[in-house]
Write a structure and sequence with these properties.
Aspartate Aminotransferase, domain 1, 2 domains, alpha/beta, Aspartate Aminotransferase, domain 2, globular, binds pyridoxal-5'-phosphate, four-stranded antiparallel sheet, seven-stranded mixed sheet
Length: 435
Amino acid sequence: MTAFQADFQPTREAALALDAGDELAPYRDQFCLPQTDGQPVVYLCGHSLGLQPKIVREYIDEELQDWAMLGVEGHFNARRPWLSYHETLTAQTARLVGAKPAEVVVMNSLTVNMHLMLVSFYRPTPARFKILIEADAFPSDRYAAESHLKWHGYDPQDALLTLQPRPGEAAVRQEDIAALLRREGETIALIWLGGVNYYTGQVFDMADITAIGHAQGCVVGFDLAHAAGNIILQLHDWDVDCAVWCSYKYLNAGPGAAAGCFVHERYANRPDLPRLAGWWGHNKDTRFQMPADFDPIAGAEGWQISNPPIFQLAALRASMDLFDRAGMTRLRAKSERLTGYLDYLIRDRDLPGVTRITSDDPAQRGAQLSLHIKEHGRALHQRLTDAHIICDWREPDVIRVAPVPLYNTFVDVLTFANALEAAHREVLVSSLSSS
Ligand SMILES: *Cc1c(COP(=O)(O)O)cnc(C)c1O
């Protein structure tokens, strides 16, 4: 349960004092803050697209200059040679997700990486062929999982298992996951869940799910799109088999950013695993001898296919430098307070028909609260937008709000709560007068 926070008050003075006491507050100034109609917005959409770090321009410009000056020689002679550019991200990425350096690589985009992992880690047998996903999995994950089932000749009707919350509940209970795995685990080839559910904001107990899944003989992978840069991850210690994430949400690397991938070190030297191969995954010592036989690099890098997009990697590097400086431990501590303050204010306003579907337990949520809006949710969201608040609307009836610890303030959260209350009143009045 949310611990009582003595300094939480629903006033501007209190919010200002909370910001004044926040050691991470200076990071806000490292970001470009968007405007609408010349007015600064309150940006609470970092779960969808993170803001641009100001330094990104400089990092990308360095690569533009090197390309202009060096042409193809930039592969070897750029300030950060493009040939090994992705390696400049390895140590930071490993720290971010709790992995060993050889277990991570930045490449492609998220769904592409998911496909690459499914090729290697969904290995159905006649007795064990099912994939378990969340009932409200992100559509791309569902499509990808179904496409692999069909590719192997299975009907998703029989082979796609979904994790359902109990009737009337939004989150899936950990004991229900354990029960399902004990009941059906022997038929499940692959467990594939979001680390943080994109819709409800539920944080799954990845360590526990991995342990129970392994005990049942399942392979366990996670989509960390909403977890990377949001919550503390310990992928190696949790013994997760594989994971993927994107870098444009909490990681602030810009639209279409290069994504991440984790493969546990026990698979580092498994050239026998089926995989979709490309030259960038080939042994670096012999890659340019253009040999006919594919010899994968040991570790996650062996799953690379193409030479990577340097400008996207430059943007990610700029953001990862900020993450490294702020540190996930401090970010997570602030995040719990910031989301806690939002939760406190929503309770304080107690608006009829507005209910939080994200857990009230800080351990079971990240920087996001999903609010179920019983009636006129779209109109309510539109009024928030008109009031220069950027949060997002998810069909059929949910507003997602993400106070991001790197750049959001306690005043942002208070401004949102005030705007929500005003919008709620206006929508209610206009619906009464039109009926
Ligand atoms: C954002 C998100 C995606 C988006 O996939 P892309 O391949 O990056 O377009 C997929 N899955 C989940 C769970 C997401 O949250």
